[in-house]
Structures are given as structure tokens and as C-alpha cells.
């Protein structure tokens, strides 16, 4: 039963991605997307998820939508404006460097989402993830202290992600 749940969850996620990428809801596109999603799910469900359909609880879905759309986009807009301001005003301090931070996330998926969120925001780039440690290139290092840097970089994303991940 658990393998069916994992397979169905994977097929649903692939189908949602298909619809988002295709951008239409014509019946022929939906049928093709369903067929592709089913075939992909057959081969990848065992590596795609361990939880299966329990990942689609209403709370997780709503929190995920809130994270990816308003929250992550807002963080990206703020980071873009900061980097643009540094380009326009070259006297603004730039103190680039690599900092070690600790993540509070436990699952590989949660760590991947945090690392990708960090990389998507201009001015930061995730270089490596080892256990609960991440190495981040930061355009303006404000602190070398692991705890302080952890609150400033991954902590921003983890506060929201903790509601539906891990």
C-alpha cells in the first residue's frame, strides 16, 4: 500500500509540474501529461518520496504555496534590490566571503529547498551541504559567527519552511 501511495504522489507532482510548464489545459495536453507523469512515476517513485500521499495534507499544501509564492518571491525581490543598489552605489560596502552556517532542517529534501532558496536570492550562493552544515558565499559577510550567520541566511527561510517540512 505504501508503494502505491508513493507512486500516486509522484505521478500527481509530475502532472502538476507538467501543467505548470505547458501552460494550457487542453484535453490532449492533459492526456499526454498524465501519460508522461505515470511513466515517470513508475521509474522514480522509489527515489522521489518516502512519505507518499501524506505529503499532500491540506496544511502542507497551503504552507508550501505560501512559501514558494509570496514568501520566497519577496525574499528574492529584496535581495535583487540590495544587489542592484550595490551596483548603482559602488561606495556601499561589499565584504564577500564564505561562511559556515548550520541548518535546522533534517530531511534531505528540506535541506535542498533551503540551499536552493539561498542560491535563488542574489548575493548568496550555496557551495556545499554537509550534514547540518552549509557553506555559503555571501556578498556582504556581516558575521563569521556560525550562530549569527545561521540566523541571517538559512534562518530566514527555515522559519517558514518548518511549518510544513521535516
Helix/sheet category? mainly alpha
Q: How many domains, as an integer?
A: 2
Number of strands: 3
Pattern of helices and strands: HHHEHEEHH
Q: What is the count of DSSP helices, taking H or I runs of 4+ residues?
A: 6
- What proportion strand? 5-15%
Radius of gyration computed on alpha carbons: 19 Å
Low-confidence stretches: none
Percent of residues in helices: 55-70%
Q: The biggest beta sheet, please?
A: 3 strands, antiparallel
The order of strands across the largest sheet is 1-3-2
- For the record, give the distance between the C-alpha atoms at the N and C termini, rounded to a whole number: 22 Å
Q: Roughly what is the average pLDDT, rounded to an integer?
A: 88
- Choose one word for the global shape: globular
Structure description:
- The chain has 166 residues and is mainly alpha-helical.
- It folds into 2 domains: 2-54, no CATH class; 58-161, no CATH class.
- It contains 6 helices and 3 strands.
- The chain has helices at 2-22, 27-48, 58-88, 108-120, 146-152, 154-161; strands at 97-102, 124-130, 133-138.
- The chain has a 3-stranded antiparallel β-sheet with strand order 1-3-2.
- The protein is globular, with a radius of gyration of 19 Å.
Amino acid at each position: 500500500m505504501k508503494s502505491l501511495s508513493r507512486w500516486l504522489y509522484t505521478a500527481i507532482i509530475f502532472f502538476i509540474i507538467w501543467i505548470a510548464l505547458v501552460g494550457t489545459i487542453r484535453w490532449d495536453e492533459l492526456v499526454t501529461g498524465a501519460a508522461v507523469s505515470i511513466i515517470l512515476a513508475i521509474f522514480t517513485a522509489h527515489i522521489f518520496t518516502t512519505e507518499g500521499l501524506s505529503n499532500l495534507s491540506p496544511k502542507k499544501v497551503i504552507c508550501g504555496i505560501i512559501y514558494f509564492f509570496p514568501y520566497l518571491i519577496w525574499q528574492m525581490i529584496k535581495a535583487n534590490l540590495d544587489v542592484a543598489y550595490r551596483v548603482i552605489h559602488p561606495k556601499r560596502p561589499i565584504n564577500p566571503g564564505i561562511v559556515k552556517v548550520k541548518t535546522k532542517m533534517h530531511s534531505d529534501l528540506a535541506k535542498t529547498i533551503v540551499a536552493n532558496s539561498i542560491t535563488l536570492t542574489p548575493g548568496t550562493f550555496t557551495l556545499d551541504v554537509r550534514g547540518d552544515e552549509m557553506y555559503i558565499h555571501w556578498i556582504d559577510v556581516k558575521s563569521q559567527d556560525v550562530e549569527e550567520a545561521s540566523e541571517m541566511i538559512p534562518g530566514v527561510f527555515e522559519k517558514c519552511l518548518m511549518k510544513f517540512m521535516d
